[in-house]
Here is the input.
Amino acid sequence: MTTALPRADVAPVASAKRRRRAPGWLAVVPLLVFTAIAFGLPALAILDGAFTAKDQTTGATSYTGANLTSSLQGPYLTALVGSVKLSAISAGLGALLGLPLAQAVVSSRSRALREAVLTASGVLANFGGVPLAFAFVATLGNAGVLTVHLGLTDKGWDLYSFWGLVLVYLYFLIPLMVLTITPALDGLRVQWREAALNNGATGVQYWRHVALPVLAPSLLGGLVLLFGSAFAAYATAAAMVGSAVPLVTLQIADALSGNVLVGQENVALALSLDMVLVAGLVMAVYLPLQRRSARWLDA
Amino acid sequence: MARRLTPWRWAVLGLAALYFLVPLAASVVFTVDVPGQGVTFDAYTQILSTDGFTSSLLLSLELAVATIAVVLLLMVPAVVALRLGAPRLRPVVEVVCSLPLVVPPIAFVAGIVTVLKWGPDHLSRTPLFQTFVAIQNPSFPVVLVLAYVVMALPFVYRALDAGLRAIDVRTLVEAARSCGASWPQALVRAVLPNLRGALLNAAFLTLALVLGEFTVARLLGFQPFAVWIYNVGGSQAQMSVAVSVLSLLVTWALLLALAGAGGRTQTASSRG
Here is the structure.
């Protein structure tokens, strides 16, 4: 940012002004350069690799859409659909169960309960991954405490299945929903409820015609956030089911490490691109909704 | 009205408590009550002497410290500058910091693996190749720090932005400057103390992210803490669950410590 200033401008006032402006640009530059390298390069690699085919014998590369096509066929398509289904169902259940919990906490007016639940939610929403999987294996796995003591295996229970994964995912999705929806529930005015009740509405009618419409953007936003979170989850599934349930994250990991077939790296990148597209769609829905619900909270 | 809701509320809270506490309690039982051996605390006493525990935990902590340092060094000047001198860059930074949300970790690591392969494939005769080798040094994989900083950007940006919204940065800096402080002094001694809660928040989120991170580390072939737990799980089920329980307790303690240290600032700012 060295500008060729006329000598007269290097007066105290001008230099103070220049000093204020110069850090403004300079302070942001390292961040932009860093993300361009650490994030931009891998992102470009995904994009480039997803459209590149490498001839195994000659080593020559050419641009093609074949990777993307094969990433939407056969076992890969099954995995993608499985991931979307699992994420949609667990996000839906998470939102459905998280809302009453958040409402119970908000309406209790007990500060201690509220602090405790919100702190616990903060911890549990981050308690994904390997430890979560192992905690559930110890509880409901084949040799798990509850499985053994209640004889659940005879009743057809299997943790290493689609619904087992849903049950485990809810463990971090419900707290995430509580964290997301609590500010919106706080924004519901007591006066609105009182006004509705004074006009002869029942509690159910208040929820249907007043509260839920106001909450709708936040609810939908939370739902989308939960979906994205479940969709991207890999560690929990990898530590729990291995590859018993077809999921796109597991497929990418397998293809990358060459577990199934050699030379599937480019299909892995195409699958990654599929995931980025789905996640991008999720964010495109989420961000405007978040802005819309923020309007109610500020009002 | 409130009284009529009470039983419903207690039912919801009770069911939630059951769902969230039973796996934890059962995990503890699982580690302590070993079939055929009765009640034993071996799973906990053996942790320290098990191969790889100390080294993987240390690696995770080192990675966490490096990531927190880098992400704060990059982000704090940038977000303060956005408030003071470069508001027009704000949308750019916002988009840049949201982009990692669009790329799931598994896709991100697929990209990183590809980039790292360029090293041997194309760059083996250039000085850059040495850089590629150096950042993959197993005793301290810099490449993981780079990846974690990117993954932490959205959370850190949000935490810092919320903290800055609560204080009047311009007035603080101008006051400090007119009292004769230099720019770095104004930033370090006037702005940063007021951002204590936000900085702690950002640091904690990053710490939790790095300590629990599994996807990127495993697929790049390194063994920090989460990957170690996973590897141990194959052979020593009891101990892997014991470590999982302990790691949850540690996270909990850290969060409570954070609430204690930053709580006053946060309530003050939310009222202000």
In short: Residues 263-272 of chain B have pLDDT under 50 and may be disordered. Chain B touches chain A through 85 residues (CB under 8 Å). The first helix of chain B runs from residue 2 to 32. The two ends of chain B are 32 Å apart (CA to CA).
